Write a sequence for this structure.
């Protein structure tokens, strides 16, 4: 392996690419060649460094200097100053990383990174970077020092539970798959991260693909599988590409293929790409999709561990679960089990979104409270507004309120509160979110994604959506809430798979905690959060309006009139209440009433 | 089944040698692999942009599977389109974070500017508007995806600039 005195990491995520990251890379290469530095300095492409709004960005190691905002023309100057003269160019230096607008920045308070430890630190497209970060050592340890049963025992003792959301102990699942007497066996990785508002797995796949691959190989050794599939959603083209590169490199280094590391263990992998169906995140549907069929779930039992893809035992875990495994094998179960609560061990990644100051990706130890996550890790509510609710667990999860903020993060605690851990989407809502509208939004999602195989889900979700739409439209009647509740219970009880069973949760949880909002819509024809269009009206506050005409120019229906520099007026008849005027107004002169 | 392949319109990819080659290559490369239907369809959709009914018949015939299976798969997954799309696609992310951050307003603006609905293509075949599931760029909300490029933190009054980039200079 060549030795370089310095490494330059250039961010090539979509935003930086759009701002010319590739041109920067080319310019750097050319300049290093021209200056005779090419043997001393290595240029690498990496996924997001952070703060891409000011891209293109690069990091110079070992100094750890973060540059941004340069163009290819600036590169010769930068190279001369930094790499020849050893002077940091303050003009392009990013000293304090921007806090808003980043997916994964520096470690935040209370964060512990296990799964995300390598993301942004290594070049995901270079296996040597992963090797330098103790990569594939766990595989060596498992193959040479541990029996398959010992590996399973270690994973059981670590307390690692399924990170896809259901929380089934990973080690136990492996033990079940191992015990089934049927061959061949398959390892499946569920990378169909479909929950809106969740992107933890994408980040791991794009930033540290080898950790997932290594986890799957170790799992394959433990359960006795010789082949694996990573089922990745089509919405993540970069992840698919990164995985394919990583698999190819792992094969070249002898971590995949026949006689891995000289042992008699054989294992290989391939990536299968979905085609945009949320239900394929359900394990039986996912397997149908791998087999080239419609992604419709089948009743369980038989469980995939017994009869899965191609009718053979298939061990299915999520991206995050697998990427925890190498660390557990390397550092030992007691280390992993030292984090978390009694029944939920280790760490969990979350994609915090919505109305918080610092949205983005975080990894925190289990047992931390929602309050700590929202107000300390994510910086609290944006624009000084008031916290209203937090939605956990994606479209199958529920909305939790102020009273739940001190709950410890734990599979059982969240389920008891009427939500669920889910895969890790965390959407924080402030007082401007209407809970009926949010419930309608989720139902719109599940209704569209229902595969249509079983009647309770196919018809039930549709009827629930119609009722919610009616209430949002201000046409709700006495008795609608009760009808909604009954329907929700029926759908939850009778649906075939997790999608239908979980679909009513957002409605039931908002009904439980925000019943008064439903009542306001129905009985007072009022939307307390001022969101539901038929129940609100926009007005321009004459004293604050400067007559800048921005609102009038942006109104899609030309409902705003007024002379330049004079207060404008909204014609309520033509107004479609889209809210664009309020968004574009620079003077907060537009108010919404209900 | 082959009877259905007798009359294919001249505009169908099957009638265009270049595109037929793509289809044939996809079939040849994946035919022996388990689960070939999805693999071929993903390849064809990705490279040609849609899977027309005659293409479905052709693929089913060549892979030796029932037409119903191919058609079933095509209609099940939202990525597969049966009609050609515009030269450029603007997709609006309907993830939770984008929804809360104001994607509905962006859609309204786009509809007004292009005078087409979501899922439709402009009459000149240039631009298609679509909604899409969460693209996982939630910290950039609200997000639109123009062709393959993610544009984040977009306000309705900035949308015309986005549109300008893909519109033909007139």
């Amino acid at each position: 392996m060549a030795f370089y005195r310095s490494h330059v990491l250039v961010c090539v995520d979509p935003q930086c690419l759009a701002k010319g990251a590739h041109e920067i890379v080319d310019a750097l290469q050319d300049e290093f060649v021209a200056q005779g530095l090419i043997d001393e300095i290595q240029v690498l492409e990496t996924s997001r460094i952070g703060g891409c709004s000011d891209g293109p960005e690069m990091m110079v190691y070992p100094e750890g200097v973060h540059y941004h905002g340069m163009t290819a023309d600036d590169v010769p100057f930068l190279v001369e100053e930094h790499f020849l003269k050893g002077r940091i160019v303050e003009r392009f230096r990013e000293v304090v990383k921007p806090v808003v607008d980043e997916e994964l920045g520096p470690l935040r308070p209370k964060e512990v990174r296990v799964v995300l430890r390598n993301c942004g630190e290594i070049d995901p497209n270079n296996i040597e970077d992963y090797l330098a970060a103790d990569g594939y050592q766990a595989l060596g340890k498992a193959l040479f020092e541990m029996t398959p049963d010992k590996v399973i025992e270690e994973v059981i003792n670590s307390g690692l539970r399924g990170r896809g959301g259901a929380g089934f102990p990973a080690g136990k699942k492996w033990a079940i798959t191992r015990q089934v007497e049927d061959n061949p066996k398959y390892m499946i990785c569920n990378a169909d991260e479909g929950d809106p508002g969740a992107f933890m797995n994408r980040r791991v796949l794009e930033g540290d693909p080898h950790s997932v691959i290594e986890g799957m190989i170790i799992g394959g050794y433990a359960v006795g599988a010789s082949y694996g599939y990573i089922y990745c959603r089509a919405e993540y083209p970069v992840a698919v590409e990164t995985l394919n590169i990583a698999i190819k490199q792992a094969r070249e280094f002898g971590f995949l293929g026949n006689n891995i590391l000289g042992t008699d263990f054989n294992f290989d992998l391939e990536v299968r790409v979905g085609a945009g169906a949320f239900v394929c995140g359900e394990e039986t549907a996912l397997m149908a999709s791998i087999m080239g069929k419609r992604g419709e779930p089948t009743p369980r039992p038989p469980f995939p561990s017994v009869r899965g893809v191609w009718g053979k035992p298939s061990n299915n875990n999520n991206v995050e679960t697998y990427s925890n495994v190498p660390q557990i094998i390397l550092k030992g179960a007691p280390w992993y089990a030292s984090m978390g609560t009694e029944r939920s061990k280790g760490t969990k990644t979350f994609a915090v979104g919505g109305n918080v100051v610092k949205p983005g990706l975080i990894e925190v130890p289990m047992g931390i409270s929602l309050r700590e996550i929202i107000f300390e890790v994510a910086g609290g509510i944006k624009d000084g507004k008031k916290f209203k609710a937090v939605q956990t667990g994606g479209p199958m999860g529920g909305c939790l309120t102020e009273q739940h903020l001190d709950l410890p993060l734990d599979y059982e605690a969240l389920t008891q509160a009427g939500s669920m851990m889910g895969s890790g989407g965390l959407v924080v809502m402030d007082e401007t979110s209407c809970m009926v509208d949010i419930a309608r939004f989720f139902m719109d999602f599940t209704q569209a994604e229902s595969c249509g195989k079983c009647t309770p889900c196919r018809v039930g979700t549709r009827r629930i959506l119609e009722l919610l739409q009616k209430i949002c439209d201000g046409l709700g009647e006495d008795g609608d809430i009760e009808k909604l509740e009954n329907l929700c219970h029926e759908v939850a009880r009778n649906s075939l798979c997790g999608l239908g069973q979980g679909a009513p949760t957002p409605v039931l949880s908002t009904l439980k905690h925000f019943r008064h909002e439903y009542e306001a819509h129905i009985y007072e024809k009022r939307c307390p959060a001022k969101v539901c269009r038929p129940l609100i009206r926009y007005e321009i506050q004459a004293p604050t309006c400067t007559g800048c005409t921005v609102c009038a120019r942006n109104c899609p229906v030309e409902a705003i009139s007024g002379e330049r520099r004079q207060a404008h007026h909204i014609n309520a008849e033509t107004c479609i209440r889209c809210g664009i005027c309020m968004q574009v107004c620079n003077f907060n002169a537009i108010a919404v009433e209900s | 089944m082959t009877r259905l392949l007798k009359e294919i319109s001249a505009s169908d990819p099957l009638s265009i040698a270049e595109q037929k080659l793509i289809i044939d290559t996809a079939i040849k490369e994946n035919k022996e692999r388990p689960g070939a239907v999805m693999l071929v369809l993903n390849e064809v959709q990705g490279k040609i942009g849609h899977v027309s009914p005659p293409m479905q018949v052709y693929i089913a015939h060549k892979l030796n599977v029932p037409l119903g299976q191919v058609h079933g798969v095509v209609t099940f997954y939202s990525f597969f389109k049966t009609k050609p799309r515009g030269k450029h696609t603007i997709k609006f992310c309907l993830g939770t974070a984008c929804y809360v951050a104001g994607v509905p307003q962006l859609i309204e603006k786009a509809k007004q500017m292009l005078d087409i609905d979501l899922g439709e293509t402009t009459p000149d075949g240039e631009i298609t508007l679509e909604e899409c599931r969460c693209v996982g760029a939630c910290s950039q909300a609200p997000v639109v995806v123009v062709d393959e490029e993610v544009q984040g933190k977009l306000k309705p009054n900035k949308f015309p600039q986005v549109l300008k980039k893909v519109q033909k200079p007139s």
Summary: The longest helix of chain B spans residues 17-30. The two ends of chain B are 46 Å apart (CA to CA). Residues 135 and 153 of chain B are 14 Å apart (CA to CA).
